Amino acid sequence: MSNEELRQKYNPDGSELRQMQMRMLEMLLCFDRICKKHNIRYWLCSGTLLGAIRHEGFIPWDDDLDVEVMRDDYKKLMKILPSELPENYVLQNHDTDPGYFFCFAKLRDKNSYLEETNRYDRIFTYKGIFIDIFPYEPVPKWIHWLSCQTFGHIYSIMNNPEYNNQQALRKVNKIYDLNHKFIFPLLRGIGALIPVKLWHYGLGIPYNNDCYVDEIFPLKTAKFEGYDMPVPNDCHSWLTRKFGDYMKLPNLDDIQSHTCTMKIYNNDKE
After folding, report:
1. Among 110, 109, 105, which residue's Cα sits nearest to residue 133?
2. Residue 195: phi, psi to the nearest 5?
3. pLDDT of residue 267
4. In Å, how far are 81, 98, 212, 252 from 259, measured between CA atoms?
5. Who contacts 257 (Cβ-Cβ below 8 Å, separation ≥6)?
6. Which partner for 113 in 32, 126, 181, 263 could form a disulfide, CB atoms 3.0-4.6 Å apart?
7. Alpha-carbon distance 123 to 169, whole Å?
8. DSSP label at 176?
């Protein structure tokens, strides 16, 4: 099935999914301008990178957008974005949204609303369409695994139906503070003593996107929805490790959405 046939089947112009993708594209272009202004390197990753290489844009059925940065640049972004973003966007991390507990940030659109299928967002303040911003850092794999175990208690709380939102929020914040104030600094200190070649997502991020730095840099560009966007230098190695035969389409009957409810407003609506 050609890209055009897939587009017509899953995200034709005017469809709700295509409107969502175009809103994410607007956000990405804004994010790109800010990063270029401040000399911050970022690149497309995960399904967004796969879409760029296989479809020259979004995977036709995809409803999220992911980018990655090195941890030092991530820390800069967390300081820069709040003052650089236009009024219709907001940076979402634990500092800007006390109910937000992930160890990566989101760039949120304030003129839309969505609910994710996992319902973790029920204690979040911001619930608009988003871009995920993932940090990378050089720690041994066992340290990254250990950080996910200590942080994983949060997911157990969020999946426990016995806790109402207020109870969940209090318990989640206690675990978040314990990890970020004590456990994660200790683990990073230990990790700094151990040379590694394979980098991982930041501590507490329970996804496996391992990479070698020389696969990423120097960055190059690929077409994404008609724009030249930064991608890893060796996309083939990265995508092969994550997806296998990445140019082959998956079983289209197994496609699942991350979003269960979504509303998109005009950009001028407050």
Report:
1. 105
2. -65, 140
3. 57
4. 25, 22, 31, 17
5. 61, 63, 117
6. 263
7. 7
8. H
Grade residue 257 by pLDDT with cuts at 50, 70 and 90. Answer: low
pTM (predicted TM-score) = 0.94
Q: What mean pLDDT comes out for the span 239-254?
A: 90
Nearest residue to 89 (alpha-carbon basis) of 135, 2, 35, 26: 26
What value does the mean pLDDT take over residues 106-114? 96
Tokens of 133: 């911003």
CA 199 vs CA 33, 41, 120, 196, 238: distances in Å: 26, 16, 27, 7, 12
Task: Report the b/e string of 77-103 with b at 16+ CB within 10 A.
Answer: bbebbeebbeebbbbbbbebbebbbbb
Q: Return the structure tokens found at 66.
A: 């992911």
Please, what is the angle between helix 71-84 and helix 16-37, to 10°?
100
pLDDT tens digits, one per residue of 46-97: 999 999 999 999 999 999 999 999 999 999 999 999 999 999 999 999 999 9
259 φ, ψ to 5°?
-110, 135
Of 14, 118, 100, 10, nearest to 63 (Cα)?
A: 10
Identify which of 148, 117, 111, 147 has the alpha carbon closest to the alpha carbon of residue 129: 111
**Residue ranges of the domains in the chain?**
3-264
Contact of 200 with 210, CB cutoff 8 Å: yes
